[in-house]
Amino acid sequence: MTNWQDPARIAADYLVLIKLVHVSFGIVIWELVINLQFDISVLTGKRKFRWTFLIYLACRWSLLPRMAVMLFGLDSRQKMNCKGWVVSVFSFGYLSAILASALIVLRIAAIWECNKFAVGLASSLWLATVGTCLHSAISVRSVRSPLSGLCVIVHVHQTLTAFFFVTLITDVVLLVLMLGGLLRWTSARHAGGGILRLLYNQGLAWLAIVSLAKIPPAVFVILDLNDAMSAIFLVSALVAMSIGASHLHRSLAEYPSSNAPGAGGTVSGLTCTGGRFVFAHGIGGEQLVSVHDTGDEQSTVYAMDSHPMHGLRNGDDVMKFRDGSLA
Asked: pTM (2 decimals)?
């Protein structure tokens, strides 16, 4: 039987952990590069800027300093303050996790049309995640290994058990909220495309990936074989969470509208407006707005004049349009 507390075994496990961190760093760089065009298009004004983009941007790029600081501590032979190093690593990692959860909460708010109960429940779970991350980042400990001279994380079981317990419960509840919100829409339950179909397919898929990515590290934290094994899948779980939430955000922004006439349309925004679900489109130089009425479960596309304040036109019907929402 393997003695997981044997110093040689722990050293070998830490070597595997370091290799996995290098692989995760490569995945982070690859994901940042292949989706860099989307970030640049928003920053240069080619895509409409919305405040949620700031959360998305911070979620994506906070992984880079986290991985760089972690690799510096694992690869460098220079003496450093182990406590400062491990707090920096966990702070950047948890910041990415908090922002990723915020993007998921915003998606749920959109699906539920800003329903107070759904948004309140999702926000409460998000605040619980924030509190757990802060406690974990403060309580994490690291010491210098006498064998390698490197800083190693200790007492991982005590530090991460609460984090994975809270975040897994949060993910399950958010997954149920998203599924329940989508099932309220008739168009999400039938084949036929549309943006709600996209939310049904991609939204649930990415949230499921985020949730499943946390199961392996949670299992190893509960088993508590040794500190190296308890932390071995933590980095990959945080990377998967950030990438999944980022794809959630981009999937809505890059979705080509099948409801609008013509081709090349891109959804640029989503607004909760009481009984209507509103999507702003841009097709060529023409501005369009899709409105889904929750009363009769029907969707309509309206042509909008060049200036948003000019109103939406559909035959003789005119509805005022202010700041991305219907009056």
From this structure: 0.73
**Looking at beta carbons, which pairs linking 104-107 to residues 24 or more positions away fall under 8 Å?**
104/174, 104/207, 104/210, 104/245, 104/248, 105/174, 106/52, 106/55, 107/178, 107/199, 107/203, 107/248, 107/249, 107/252
pLDDT tens-digit series, residues 17-68: 999 999 999 999 999 999 999 999 999 988 888 888 999 999 999 989 989 9
* d(C-alpha 217, C-alpha 229), whole Å: 9
Rounded Cα distance between 242 and 233, Å, is 15
Helices (H) and strands (E) in the chain, counts: 12, 10
- Residues 289, 267: Cα–Cα separation, whole Å: 9
> CA–CA separation, 108 vs 178, rounded Å?
6
| Alpha carbons 285 and 283: distance in angstroms, whole number | 6
Q: How far apart are CA 43 and CA 36, in angstroms?
A: 11
Enumerate residues 6+ apart whose C-beta is below 8 A from 173. 121, 122, 125
Secondary structure element (H or E) that encloses residue 181, with its range: helix 156-183
pLDDT confidence of residue 19: 92
Centre a 10 Å sphere on the Cβ of residue 309 and count the other Cβ atoms it contains.
10
The Cα 202–Cα 180 span in angstroms is 15
Cα separation, 173 vs 237, whole angstroms: 18
Tell me the residue length of the chain.
327
Token pair for 96: 């990415």
Among 23, 102, 111, CA closest to 60: 102
